[in-house]
Amino acid sequence: MSIDRGDGGRGGVAFLLAQLGAHAAGRFAERIAALDLTPAQAGLLRLLARTPGRSQRELAGDLGMPPSRFVPFADKLEERGLIERRRNPDDRRLYALHLTPEGFALLGALREVATAHEEQTCQALSPEEHEQLAALLRRVADQQGLAPGVHPGYRTVR
Known about the structure:
Blueprint: H1 13-33, H2 39-50, E1 54-55, H3 56-63, H4 67-79, E2 83-88, E3 91-99, H5 101-121, H6 127-143
Antiparallel strand pairs: 1-3, 2-3
Helix pairs in contact: 1-5, 2-5, 3-4
């Protein structure tokens, strides 16, 4: 027996958010594959651009990743020359992560792809509607206790 929600079978808000989120995430992954990046790697590059010099432990905590998973995750970006580990001058036991010039260059290309993705995803909305939707979604995300700018998918990155 199905429940009639009066939505013509299109789903409620939670379903639509999940449907659109999965669609948008998949399309974004396809787009950044041309840059040889995964969404998780792109997120770390963005985070390092905003907050350079943070320790691996701090970054892992912010992303909701166990430190044991974060190290090999960061290793791949370091091997590509996109990030570098530097000894933390305040605590020599820790490494501070920074983008390299190559990482900043790739971040510029990533921003272009992300801007095009945002525009394509929201093309059915006017600029005012786009802003309104973003504000409403931020409010819901805040109420749900989600960390701003951090995708919950980091918890499962291997």
